[in-house]
Structures are given as C-alpha cells and as structure tokens.
Recover the amino acids of this structure.
C-alpha cells in the first residue's frame, strides 16, 4: 500500500492504493467518488471514462499509481460552478440521452473529449467516436442528438424535453 | 400544441440530474461500515461430480474470514421457481432443486461452488486460488434435441429425463388444426432458431447483505427490478426469514431488461452470510461472471407451419418448439415459452385454428428466463418470418398478405383461438403509417441507387402484438403463477400539499419518477415538482410486484390513479365542509376546489392543511390525515401493437448487412410522456437489431460459453445503428385501465428482429439468390454462405 496523490476536479486528493489498484477503483473506493462506473472487465464498455491531463482515458485500464500527480476530471467535475448542469449534461437531459444512467458518466466524458477536438462533429463522426462506449438502454440516437445539441448544431427530428 | 406539463408532455426527466452529475445511488455505490467482500468460486466445467472441496489453506490466509460451501446451507431451501407448468398429460413439470451453492454436482459453467469472504476483495480473490476443488468431469448436455434422446446424460440424476415439460396449447384444437392443414390450399413451413442472448444491462448485479443483531432484522441491497418479489421468494422459500424482519432495497438500478427480475443465489448468500458473520457482506459481479450467472434469454428452436386457403386467408398455424431452460429453473422460466409465447401466436391476424407444442429442456447451460419481450419476440419472429416466406412462395406483396388477414378495427374485442381477448387495436392504421413514413412505394428508386453503388437493397416488414401488464391475478393463477400480479400504490399528501407517491413498480431506466409524477400532477392540477415518486424499498412501499412485461404504467400507474382518486374524494369532502357546500358540487381544477355555479373556492393547500390541522373539520364523518393506498388488479392484459419497416443494404462481396433505415409505427394507447416513450422504443429497437445481426450466446459442445465477454459477444455500438424513425400517433386506448395505456417497454425488441431478417432475405431474393431463411444473428459469414451455396 502506498499513498497516491492527484488532483481530481481541481482539488488535491490522496488515498491508499496497492500497485494493482486501478484508477477506476481508486476513484470509487479510495476517494468514494462513485460517479465513475465500472461496467466490464475487458476495457470495452467505456462507463469508466475520465480525463487524465486533458485526455479521455478508460480509468479501468490505468493503474492509480500511473495517475499520481495528474489532473483528473470525472463526471462529478462537469457541472457549472453554481452546481447547475454543464452544457453537455444539460443537452443530455434535454434530448433524453440517458435512461438508466449507468453508461452516462462515460458518455458525458467521451462527449466532452470529442467536442474539445472536434467542436462541430457530424452525426457519423459522433457515432464513430462513441465506438468505445456501450449503452444498452438508449439505442444511442438520443446520445447522438444530445452531443449535436451540445455542439450548438441543429438536431434533426428530435423531441426535446420541455 | 404539445403540452408543457402533465399527461402528454415531454417533461424533462428529474432523475437525470443525479445521474448526469455522478450522484446516482447504485447498489455498488453503497458501502456499509465493517463490510466484508464475497468472491464466488464458480465451476469452469459444464457438468461434473464434486469429489471434494478443501478450504483449509484458503481459510488460513491473511484477511480471509470464512469459506462457505453447500455444507453451510444444509438448512436452507433451494432457489424457487415462481411458475408451474402442467404438461399435455396433466402432470406437473419436472422441477429440480436449485441449491444456493452446488451440492455434489456442478451443472453449468458459472455454477457457484464455494464463496470466500474476506476483509478485502483482493484477499478474497487471492484466497480463492487456494481453495482445492476436485471435480470429475461428466459429459455435457448442450444440444436440446440430443438432450431428449434415450440414454442421454441427465442434467439432474433425480429427474426421469431432461424434459422439463411437454406443453400443448390449445390441446383440444390439435385435431382440428391437423384437419385444416390436410385441407389447405397452400402450406408454408419454416425451421428457425431464436438465438440465445445475454441481457447485459450495463450495471452488473450487486448484492449486499446486512444483519442487525439488536432487532434481528436483515437488509438486502440488490440490483433488482422487483424488491418485494425477492423479499417474498428469499424470505419464505430460501432462508425462512419472516417478511417483517427482511427489508429489500433496490436503489438506482442500471438497467435490467428482465435479467434483474429473478431471485439469484448471490442475494441469498449475502443475506445468509451477513448473519453468520455478523458483518455486512458485499458481492459485485464482474462482467465475466455476469455472462455465466445472469439468466440468459430466448434460445428456442422451432418448426412453424402456416396453412392458407385458395384466397390466401390463414386457416391454421402449427408449431413445435424446443425451449432451453438451462441447468435449473430460473424464477419465471417456465412461463416464457408457454403463456407468454403460445398465447401470442395469433399475432395481428384472424387465423382461426392454432396449435402450439413446446418441449422445455434441461441442458448444462446457464438458466434461461425472460429477456426484453420474453416469449413474445419468439412468437412474433416465427409468425412474421413464416408469413413473409408464404408471400414469397405465393408471389404476393407481403404487406398486402398481412393486411388481408388482419383483425379489423370493427372486430374488437377479439377473442383469439389461443385464449386471449384483445380489447382494442387498429392494425391497418399502424401498417398505413409505417408504409407512409418509410416510403414503401419509393423503395424501387432507393434499390436502384444502392445497386448503382454495388449494394443489394432489401425491405422487410413485420407486425407485432404483445400482451403486456402480466395480469390479472386470477387468470395467471390458473395458468400456474405462484404469485398474484397486481400492483400497489400509496399516496401520501403532506400538510402543506406536497405529495409522496410510494409505488411497487421499480424504475431502472424507464423514468417513472417523472412520468408517474406527471399523472398525479395532472389529476390534481399541481406543478409536477410538488410530487415525489418513491420506489425500490420494501420498508417504504406497501407491496409490489415490480417492473417487467411493460407493466409499470398499465398496472402500477393504474394503482396510483386509484389511490389518487381516493385522495381527491376525501379532499373534496373536506373542501365541501370548508366551503359549507354539498360534496357533489365540489370541482377540482388546477389545484383549486370550487363550488359549481358559484365563485367560492379553496386552494389545494388549504384543504390538505385542514386534513392535518383539523380545527374546522368534519371529524364525525372522516378521519384527519390524507393518505390512501390502492391495489390494482387489472381485468385483462393490455395489447400494444405496431408495424415495423426495415431497409438494409447487403454487400454482395462480404455478406455484410447495413441497416440503412428503420421505421416503427406503434399503438401504445395513450401516452404520458412522448419523449420517454420514444426513448423506450429506440432502446428496444437497438436490442432487436442487435439480436438480428450481432448478438449470440454460443456454447461449444463441452458447454463452454464462447461469447462470454464484450470482446466476443457483439453488443450493438453507436455506429451499428441507423437513425430510428419512431411514431406512436396511432392510438386505440386500452379499454380497461383508467389511463388507457398499454405499455411500451418491450415493443422495439419484439417487432424488430423479423423486420430485419425479412429485409435481408428480400435483398438476396431480389438479387436472384433463392434463400428461404438465415438464422440470427444474420452475420456476414451466414449471408455470404447463403449467397454462395
Ligand atoms: S469498465 Fe472500463 S471499459 Fe468497461
Ligand atoms: S442509459 Fe443505461 S446503459 Fe446507457
């Protein structure tokens, strides 16, 4: 066991971890930040996506020790300073981009990484980018719409919530 | 004009805020002081005799608290089955014991043998390596038909064979059906497989058992779609814990699709072990474990025959199905291939004679139970495939052949020959709608465009009918259910007028917290945010049969309406007293009580306050307080229906199928929240298209699950799916529930697989390949083989 320190959502935090402790485990169990989810054991589902030094990373594929000293952003860090939903989060709510919510943290973090690199993605680019995020509930359509909306683009055929 | 709140409004989902900010409360997010960690040691062979289990070395390891085996559960019952089927000879089905941990034999890969409980999960996993288990492997029984051969290895030595039951429905029709076939002008027959699937909700199952010695109370936190059912099954049948000493909590649950209906061994284990160890015990499934321990779905092998007369009217249907039960009977397993499948074989059509035979078979595979649609997708797939094949054989338009045989709007209520009575429907309306939205008539131009790009384009149609609500109790009791299938709701109005609704339905993605609040808000005329929906905790909700079979709004919502009506009736009495008017003259609108024909009125909040501060109150007539409970047991199933149209492009060089357009026209009766309904259909379509093209749980001959991870089991991804056009403007309200709703959760998964397969076959046949059928998943290899055979 060693103490690992990193910056998560702007605050410096520390917790004990073994060498084999994954970043996803460190966040959930070490820090009690359960917004990041674990949906598989083969790095396939993307429920665990966080940002490490600005890059989208599946936190189940990285040891906590590798993230020592890094800047980590999780879904808990995506709201506005006043606690209201951030642009991407709000678009997910407006366009019903989530049902059970389990894949949602990973979807939001992946969407944020996509829009950083590609501020106006096409629908095809969004679908392609989400290759590493599985959602069993939504059929993806409203996730795609939400990301289109978050990027300020027209969302064809959507029933937006009131 | 779309409404902006209440019934019919696309209200934003309130639950989203916590999910989007990482504040959901899923079972694995719960940690209890002093908790221990359970790691299950599971069989890696499909069938074998356990010679010995030596736990001594593991128990001596650091951090290990105890290693449990079947010996620790000698006094416990087996995991019960909730539905009994009576076979063609009037005998009860064969029902083997399903122990919590394997007793003497293992019967499928994943069957739990022992459990290490330790201070940390790592310690438990490490110690599992030190548990010595000696197993003699036995031949595995995998193929259903081979399992029924004389002399086949038996999955359960104490049963007479691997046949669970041989069910005939409607047995009395059998001879008449055979006679109709003898007289038919045309008979189309088809052999097909409804592929075995894994539900794979994104949240794996979790169970946490907790025991409180001071009051002898147990709490189980579990990823369940129906916590009260788990309390009943586990308390009464497995662990003998009286219901008042057992609390089951299912907090936020990350999807279920059926797989979280059932009572599982891990729930009983954690609850039991918590008392033995006097410490909380937590188990979180890995995805690898989920593949071999969550109940699977479908897995039917069927021969269907359709008889038609000289005018192409359907005269009879005959089917023979082998339904895989797996190694043990899961909670509702026997009901799926029987009452949820045979009763739907009339589909949307007037076929007068139907006979369904189902042989349920034990094999050395994971138990099979309901998965989104449950029996109804299997029925729909057979029917819509055989009709399509008939249309091709007869050279008629598949849409017209269907239409010609539809039950017409003026024929409702319509009693089918398979024991159900459809209350209402308009199948022409959804068919017209889907053909229009999907531009059926413009197909030729699109096909030409595809051809110019070297692709084969096909179009496929399917209609479906489903029976939802899973009720009424007196009927399901006759059919073998060992439970009632009503729902309860308690409506508590607080003194200042806000409302808490406690519902026995459970939301794990369906958005009940929003939809249910819309209904109550509409009935009283309050803002939706004045209403809270509470679910998922047996200590809060009076009773509940839970969420499956698209029953939440139709049954749970109806219970809530009934309880709210009682609230309104009582509140009117109070209002009448306050305004010194006759009760019959009191009207409630927009949260305001008024006296008809006068300008007297009193606000909702004044009445609710009077109920709790009864200074000026009709105490001689009614009690103070404003809280009502209702149980609702419906008069019938509900019957959502619809028509789906799929267009595919097939790459003739590789056999790859691309779904390029999909249109769904559904009739769900009245719709409370159109946005949520659209989302439910989209999700169901994704699962149905996934079944048709990608997903498959494949066992090898030794009973190893070959597609046991997301690397091998092809979950649909964002770029596998097209934009889905979803319409629910056709509406024939349910005639027997107060909201006129039918249920929308499963439709997409029921209607889409045959539409996709029909489209692929259409593409191939148009291109001159005479292919009658391709089994799901319609993979590139299968398509290519069909084209090149
Ligand atoms: S948990 Fe990280 S990819 Fe599935
Ligand atoms: S919302 Fe349930 S998995 Fe995506």
């Amino acid at each position: 066991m060693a103490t690992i320190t990193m910056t998560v959502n702007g605050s410096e935090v520390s917790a004990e971890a073994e060498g084999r402790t994954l970043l996803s485990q460190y966040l959930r169990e070490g820090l009690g930040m359960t917004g990041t989810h674990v949906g598989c054991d083969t790095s396939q589902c993307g429920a665990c996506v966080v940002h490490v030094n600005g890059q989208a990373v599946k936190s189940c594929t990285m040891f906590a020790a590798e993230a020592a000293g890094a800047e980590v952003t999780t879904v808990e860090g995506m709201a506005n300073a006043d606690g209201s939903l951030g642009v991407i989060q709000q678009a997910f709510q407006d366009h019903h981009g989530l049902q059970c919510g389990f894949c949602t943290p990973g979807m939001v973090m992946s969407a944020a990484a996509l829009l950083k690199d590609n501020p106006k993605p096409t629908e095809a680019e969004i679908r392609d980018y989400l290759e590493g995020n599985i959602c069993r509930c939504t059929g993806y359509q409203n996730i795609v719409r939400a990301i289109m909306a978050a990027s300020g683009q027209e969302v064809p055929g959507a029933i937006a919530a009131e | 004009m779309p409404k902006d709140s209440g019934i019919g409004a696309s209200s934003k989902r309130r639950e989203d805020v916590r999910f989007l900010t990482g504040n959901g409360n899923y079972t694995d997010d719960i940690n209890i002081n002093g908790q221990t960690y359970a790691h299950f040691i599971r069989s890696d062979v499909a069938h074998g005799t356990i010679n010995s289990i030596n736990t001594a070395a593991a128990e001596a390891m650091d951090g290990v608290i105890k290693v449990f085996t079947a010996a620790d559960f000698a006094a416990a019952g087996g995991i019960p089955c909730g539905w009994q089927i009576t076979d063609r000879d009037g005998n009860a089905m064969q029902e083997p014991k399903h122990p919590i941990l394997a007793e003497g034999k293992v019967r499928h890969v994943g069957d739990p043998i022992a459990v290490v409980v330790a201070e940390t999960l790592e310690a438990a996993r490490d110690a599992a390596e030190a548990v010595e288990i000696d197993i003699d492997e036995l031949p595995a029984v995998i193929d259903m038909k081979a399992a029924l051969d004389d002399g086949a290895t038996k999955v359960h030595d104490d049963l007479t064979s691997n046949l669970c039951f041989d069910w005939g429905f409607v047995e009395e029709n059998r001879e008449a059906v055979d006679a109709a076939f003898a007289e038919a002008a045309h008979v189309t027959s088809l052999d097909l497989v409804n592929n075995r699937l894994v539900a794979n909700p994104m949240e794996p199952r979790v169970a946490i058992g907790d025991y409180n010695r001071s009051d002898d109370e147990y709490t189980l936190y579990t990823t369940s779609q129906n916590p009260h059912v788990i309390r009943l099954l586990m308390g009464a049948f497995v662990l003998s814990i009286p219901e008042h000493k057992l609390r089951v909590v299912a907090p936020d649950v990350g999807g279920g699709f059926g797989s979280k209906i059932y009572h599982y061994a891990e729930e009983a284990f954690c609850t039991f072990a918590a008392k033995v160890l006097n410490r909380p015990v937590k188990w979180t499934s890995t995805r690898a474990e989920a593949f071999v321990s969550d109940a699977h779905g479908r897995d039917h092998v069927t021969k269907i025959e359709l008889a038609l007369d000289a005018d192409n009217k359907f005269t009879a249907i005959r089917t023979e199905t082998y339904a895989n039960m797996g190694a043990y009977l899961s909670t509702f397993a026997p009901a799926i291939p029987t009452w949820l499948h045979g009763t739907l074989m009339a589909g949307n059509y007037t076929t007068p004679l139907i006979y369904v035979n189902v042989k349920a078979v034990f094999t050395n595979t994971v138990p099979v139970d309901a998965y989104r649609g449950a029996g109804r997708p299997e029925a729909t797939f057979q029917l819509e495939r055989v009709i399509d094949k008939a249309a091709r054989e007869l050279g008629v338009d598949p849409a017209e052949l269907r239409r010609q045989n539809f039950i017409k709007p003026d024929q409702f209520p319509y009693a089918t020959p398979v024991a159900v009575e459809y209350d209402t429907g308009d199948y022409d309306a959804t068919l017209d709608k889907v053909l229009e939205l999907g531009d059926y008539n413009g197909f030729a131009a699109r096909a030409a465009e595809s051809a110019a790009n070297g692709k084969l384009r096909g179009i496929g149609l399917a209609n479906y009918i489903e029976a939802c609500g899973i009720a009424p109790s007196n009927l399901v009791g006759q059919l073998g259910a060992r439970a009632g299938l009503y729902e309860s709701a308690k409506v508590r109005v607080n003194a200042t007028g806000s409302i808490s609704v406690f519902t026995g339905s459970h939301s794990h993605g369906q958005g009940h917290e929003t939809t249910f609040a819309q209904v109550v808000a509409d009935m009283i005329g309050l803002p939706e945010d004045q209403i809270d929906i509470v679910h998922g905790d047996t200590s809060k909700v009076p009773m509940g049969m839970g969420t499956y079979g698209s029953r939440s709004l139709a049954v749970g919502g109806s219970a809530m309406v009934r309880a709210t009506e009682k609230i309104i009736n009582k509140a009117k009495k109070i209002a009448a007293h306050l305004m010194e008017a006759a009760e019959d003259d009191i009207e409630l609108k927009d949260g305001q009580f008024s006296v008809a024909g006068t300008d007297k009125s009193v606000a909702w909040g004044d009445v609710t306050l009077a109920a709790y501060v009864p200074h000026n109150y009709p105490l001689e007539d009614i009690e103070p307080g404003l809280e009502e409970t209702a149980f609702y047991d419906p008069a019938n199933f509900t019957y959502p229906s619809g028509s789906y149209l799929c267009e595919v492009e097939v790459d003739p060089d590789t056999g790859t199928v691309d779904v390029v357009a999909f249109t769904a026209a559904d009739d769900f009766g009245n719709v409370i929240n159109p946005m949520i309904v659209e989302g439910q259909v989209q999700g169901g379509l994704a699962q149905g298209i996934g079944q048709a093209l990608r997903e498959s749980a494949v066992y090898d001959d030794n009973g190893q699950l070959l597609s046991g991870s997301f690397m091998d089991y092809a979950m649909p991804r964002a770029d596998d799916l097209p934009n889905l056009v979803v319409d629910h403007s056709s509406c024939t309200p349910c005639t027997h529930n107060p909201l006129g709703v039918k249920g929308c959760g499963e439709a997409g998964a029921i209607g889409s697989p045959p539409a996709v397969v029909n489209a692929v076959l259409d593409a191939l046949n148009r291109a001159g390949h005479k292919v009658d059928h391709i089994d799901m998943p319609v993979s590139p290899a299968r398509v290519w083989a069909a084209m090149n055979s």
